[in-house]
Amino acid sequence: MPAVSEHRAPPPVTRHDWSRPEIEALFALPFTELLHRAGSVHRNHFDPAEVQVSTLLSVKTGGCPEDCAYCPQAQRYHTGVEAQKLMSTGAVLEKAKQAKAAGASRFCMGAAWRSPKDRDIPKVAAMIREVKALGLETCATLGMLSDSQAQALKSAGLDYYNHNLDTAPDFYGEIIHTREFQDRLDTLAHVRDAGMKTCCGGIVGMGESRAQRAGLLQTLANLPAHPDSVPINRLVQVEGTPLAGTAELDPFEFVRTIAVARIVMPRSMVRLSAGRESMSDELQALCFAAGANSIFYGEKLLTTGNPDTERDLALFARLGLRPMAVVEEASTVHADIVAPAQSCAA
Ligand code: SF4
C-alpha cells in the first residue's frame, strides 16, 4: 500500500481571515464529509498516527477570586476544592525530576490566580529556571500577565504560556464577569510580544450555540498567530458551580468542533483536554480521526501507578497510534498533575 505521504495535497495556506458564516458552513457539512476534510488537513501537516501527550502540575490550587462559571477552583463556589498555597521550588523540582524520569520533555506549571502579583514572579521564575536546568521545556498558566511579567517569565526561560479564550466573545459575558474578553486577548499579545509560544483554546458544552462555537474557533483562527496548541475542552460539570446541570452537548457536535478546529488551524496541536476522562474509547477515536493530535494524560502520571495512563496507552495500541516523544516544535510529552476538572489550563 502506498505511503500516506504519497497522496498528500499541497498544504493549504494558513489563514487569519475566517468569517463566522464560513466556519458555520464547515460545522454544517455532512459528518462524513467534515471528517474527510479535517483528516486530509491533518495528514498535510502531521503524521496522523502520532498523538502528543501533555499533562499539568498544579503549583497553586484553588482559592481563585475569579468567577468562571465552570471552574471548581473559584473560591466563591463550594466544590470541595481546598485552596493551597504556591508550592515551594524544591517540591516543584521534585515533581519535575519525576516527570523527566517518566519520559517527559516538557513540564507545565499551573496556578489558580486571576493574575500573578509582581511579588510572585520571582518565585515562579525560580521554578522555571530550575525546571529548565533539568533539560525540560517549560510551560505555565498563571492567569492574566502584564507586558513586564511576560518579559520576566520569558527571561527566566519559559517556552510556552497557556491562556484560554474559553468561549466566543458574544457568550463570554454569560460565563465570566470578573474580567473582559479583551483582557484575554491582551495577555496573549503580551505573551507573543515576549517571544513565547501560546497555548490557547476553549470549552464547549457550556450552553453556547453552534454559532458561538464557530465564534470561538473564528477568534482563535484569526489571532495574529495561530496558537501552537489549541485545547478543546468538553465541559466537566462540577457540583457547586453555576454550570452544574447544563444540558450535555451531543458527542457528535464535540467531534465536529474538533474537526473544524483542525481545518481552520491546520498547523496547531488540537488537544483533547478536560472532559476526556468521561469520553468512551469510540468517541476519542472519532476525535483522533477528526484531527485531534494531543491529549492530557490522567492526573496520576507522577504518582505511583497510573491506570489512566495505562488505559490511554491501551487505546493507542488498539488504534495503532503512538505518543509523540520528540523534542521538536509542538511534539513533546509534558508530565504534570492536572487540577480538578477544567480550569485556566484545561
Ligand atoms: S478558570 Fe482560572 S481564572 Fe477562572 S476561576 Fe478557575 S482558576 Fe480562576
TrEMBL record:
Matching InterPro entries: Aldolase_TIM, BATS_dom, Biotin_synth/BioAB, Biotin_synthase, Elp3/MiaA/NifB-like_rSAM, rSAM, rSAM_sf
Domain of life: Bacteria
Cofactor remark: Binds 1 [4Fe-4S] cluster. The cluster is coordinated with 3 cysteines and an exchangeable S-adenosyl-L-methionine. Binds 1 [2Fe-2S] cluster. The cluster is coordinated with 3 cysteines and 1 arginine.
Listed EC numbers: 2.8.1.6
Catalysed reaction equations from the record: (4R,5S)-dethiobiotin + (sulfur carrier)-SH + 2 reduced [2Fe-2S]-[ferredoxin] + 2 S-adenosyl-L-methionine = (sulfur carrier)-H + biotin + 2 5'-deoxyadenosine + 2 L-methionine + 2 oxidized [2Fe-2S]-[ferredoxin]
This protein's pathway: Cofactor biosynthesis; biotin biosynthesis; biotin from 7,8-diaminononanoate: step 2/2
Co-factor(s): [4Fe-4S] cluster; [2Fe-2S] cluster
Entry-linked SMART domains: BATS, Elp3
GO molecular function annotations of the record: 2 iron, 2 sulfur cluster binding; 4 iron, 4 sulfur cluster binding; biotin synthase activity; iron ion binding
Chain residues that bind [2Fe-2S] cluster: 108, 139, 199, 271
Gene Ontology biological process terms, A to Z: biotin biosynthetic process
Record's keyword terms, sorted: 2Fe-2S, 4Fe-4S, Biotin biosynthesis, Iron, Iron-sulfur, Metal-binding, S-adenosyl-L-methionine, Transferase
Binding-site list for [4Fe-4S] cluster: 64, 68, 71
Protein task: Catalyzes the conversion of dethiobiotin (DTB) to biotin by the insertion of a sulfur atom into dethiobiotin via a radical-based mechanism.
Family as reported in the entry's similarity comment: Belongs to the radical SAM superfamily. Biotin synthase family.
PANTHER family for the chain: BIOTIN SYNTHASE (PTHR22976), BIOTIN SYNTHASE, MITOCHONDRIAL (PTHR22976:SF2)
Name the UniProt record assigns to this protein: Biotin synthase
Gene: bioB
